[in-house]
Amino acid sequence: METVPLILKKAHGERLLDTEIEWMVMGYLRDRIPDYQMSAFLMAVCQRGMDTAECTALTRCMRDSGECLDLSGIGHPVCDKHSTGGVGDKTTLVVLPVVAACGGYGAKMSGRGLGYTGGTVDKLHAIPGFSTELSLGHFIRQVQTEGLAVVEQMKNLVPADKKIYALRDVTGTVESIPLIASSILSKKLASGADVIVIDVKYGRGAFMKERNSATALGNMLRQVGSALGKEVHPVLSSMDVPLGCAVGNAIEVREAIDVLRGGGTEDVRSLSVTLAAKMLALSGMGSEDECRAAAVQSLKDGSAYDKFCRMVWAQGGDVSAVEDVERLPAAKYRQILYAERTGEIRKMQTDKIGEAAVTLGAGRRRKDAEISYGAGLMVFRKTGEIVKAGDALAEFYSDDKDCITAASRLYRDAVSVE
Ligand code: URA
Fold it and tell me: For the residues 288-312, what does the mean pLDDT come to?
């Protein structure tokens, strides 16, 4: 087989055979296919798509590119959640502790930020000492004893996705239904959970801009999951405005802690409760209504917060930085952005707000770039609100003043006040 004809075959919109898909994925993983050819192939998939059978072949071959975990030793149904990527989405930091506080078992492998969307691993690394690289034994024991663990994708699991994901991030090849579906599912299938709930985002801050395409992604996830023997449950949620107020890493951890302590922002709380209730119900912990009530209670009575602290402790993190969030990393500079005129916020281009956060240093533009854990922004006013000239719209945090200037420009562009 030759690589260039396969790139052209997809570029011309033809269906690929399972063996051809495997050639591309395994060739790239084993360094027989260089970055530039894989980038061209990924771009062809973005433009031409893949049908369910191709996506199933892609998912299977990525799943089987490494080890697959067997979590049956945990002795309980294990649940996992994943988001297709959003701006300000810190729900994992709330959902897993809620699940554990309600008697469920949550074992999650998370990723780094991708494009303008944040990643749970980057957020957790904002907690001093927090390790997302646990041995398999540690991971399983922690889920058994504490009810939750969040780690980064283990190196021996789905190495093909790890390599392709990093390339997609820097080649404009993220926004594709089959690439997103295969990336998410290969990881979820290899990580061995019994219950898989996927938060499929749509809107301006999501890879799927329209609700229709999110529905299509949800269907693809469900169909490919079922073709590979796993029930997958998509939950659609809007990303037309950032979720909550914080967009960054340490500041998102702070916001999640506020929610875990019974306060915080309503949208973060409500989506977290919905996802946790679904995971608990599918794990056999009661009806969705009963599980919802238990989830709400765990945020009120502090048991979810306790679980979060237990997880931080078990993964080597500094619990004092959770108890006193002033100890979390902070950027050198901060600056407020004020409204220039009075009017209603008609729309927010949430993807540009995500870009502004990346510009401030909270995300990566190159796959090996360092990020600044204290960088990011706080959104004070959202779509539908009336603002007066001089009202604070947002606040920016960065270690570089020039980045604040660039991010302010992006943010002004992203928010229309009319
Ligand atoms: N999340 C993933 O894990 N992969 C994608 O491609 C997009 C979001």
Answer: 98
Q: Is 115 in the pocket of ligand 1 (CB under 6 A)?
A: no
Burial 334-349 (b: 16+ CB within 10 A, else e): eeebebeeeeebebbb
Q: pLDDT tens for residues 201-240? A: 999 999 899 999 999 999 999 999 999 999 999 999 999 9
Q: Which residues pair with 417 in a beta bridge?
A: 345
Could you tell me if residue 338 is left (phi over 0), alpha (psi between -120 and 50 degrees) or otherwise beta?
beta
User: Nearest CA to 267 among 127, 102, 384, 137?
Assistant: 384
Q: Of these residues, 65, 183, 372, 408, which one is catalytic?
A: 183
Active site residue 183: yes
Q: In this structure, is the dihedral angle defined by the CA atoms of residues 190, 192, 194 and 198, taken in order, positive or negative?
A: negative
Q: What is d(CA 209, CA 358) in angstroms, rounded to the nearest whole number?
A: 20
In ligand 1, which atom is closest to the CA atom of 183? Answer: 4
- Which secondary structure element, helix H or strand E, spans residue 259, and what is its range? helix 250-260
d(C-alpha 312, C-alpha 260), whole Å? 13
What is the structure's pLDDT at 166?
87
| Residue located via tokens 């697959």 | 68
Burial class (CB in 10 A: 0-12, 13-18, 19+), 13: exposed
> Coil, strand or helix: which one is 202?
strand
Among 50, 86, 78, smallest CA distance to 182 is for 50
- The confidence score (pLDDT) of residue 108 equals 94
What b/e sequence results for 196-229 when a residue is b if at least 16 CB atoms lie within 10 Å of its CB, and e otherwise?
bbbbbbbbbbbbbbeeebbebbbebbbbbbebee
Tokens of 116: 């303008």
The residue whose CB lies within 8 Å of the most ligand 1 atoms, and thus the one to mutate among 80, 87, 114, is 114
